[in-house]
From TrEMBL:
Group of enzyme by EC: oxidoreductase
Gene label: queG
This enzyme's EC code(s): 1.1.-.-
The protein's name in its UniProt record: Epoxyqueuosine reductase
Transmembrane feature ranges: none
Record InterPro entries: 4Fe4S_Fe-S-bd (IPR017896), 4Fe4S_Fe_S_CS (IPR017900), ARM-like (IPR011989), ARM-type_fold (IPR016024), QueG (IPR004453), QueG_DUF1730 (IPR013542)
Amino acid sequence: MGLKRYIVDKSKELNIDMIGFTDCEPLNNKKDYLIARQKKNRQTEFEERDIDKRINPRLTFPQCKTIIVIGLSYNNRLNERVDYKLKGLISKSSWGIDYHIVLKSKMEDLIKEIRKITNFTYKYFVDTGPLIDRELANKSGIGYYGKNCSIINGEYGSFIFIGYILTDLDINFIPISIDSQCGDCNICIDHCPTGALEGPFKFNPKKCISYLTQTKEKIPYELRDKMEIKIYGCDTCQLVCPKNKDVKKSNCKEFLPKVTKGYMDIEELFFISNRQFKEKYGEMAGSWRGKNILKRNGIIALGNMRDRVNIKLLESLLNDPNPVIREYAAWAILKIDLECGKEVVEERIGIERDENVRSEMKNLIKYFIHKDYQ
């Protein structure tokens, strides 16, 4: 039995949904794209800044000969209801146990199986390496690029997590790079809430709700409006995609939302301690950004609900020790009810000690008054 066949067979035994192989040649076809993206200030705070490291596997692992790419589906169904009074929506990517943990475990098991028959050196990554994992997935035959820039697999659709192992193994394989099969369909582009999909295969990450729910940068007011009640991530472009209909569902029970049921209790999120947050949500992928970022997103969700009943709850956050929380609470209060909110926020301005927060609150009042008269 050849090494490739052995690895594929073992991956099936380990319940790895998808596996592919590719070479370690630089991803030169992506260099111009990355340079243009950098010039447009579209690099996010989560990615490698050095473009050469993003495209050249040997700058990460000089001995690299073959890259093994794996994919796990997280396309789970959920019919359970939650009794939270104030619900914030969580992306499927953060429903269950952190996918970094699950994929790393799968790759470690696969590495152990390979080392039973041959000794080799390697490095492996899940979303934390410098390389463009989607490009590796495409080159390895895992799937093709959708117009939303997600990788789509013919059997499992696009709700897939990607991991890769850089190895010094000599593996015989036929290179496979699958062309897009989206045809004339533009459903994902038409449904993107913020217009982050600026055309087929043209993605502006700085406008993507998934990015907005994770960034520590100030979120533009007009984009906050589009975030609706999303606390972490966004699945819109994938949920509307026809390629995700009638596909195989995930076999990975680790990705079922046993703790969250797909939502977070916003009121609990506002007052839970850091220790309690880690105990309850520590294994969730979305917890990596910390409680305060999710708390901020919960405030945005309340603002977008526009229910006056929630103003009292938001008022209490005007005393939060975190200045960012105070600023976003003022935004939400003013959005829900400008007349009442103006009175509440002006009162807070009178006792606010942070000059930056005071300035932001004044700007918010001007912004909403101007918006109200348009």
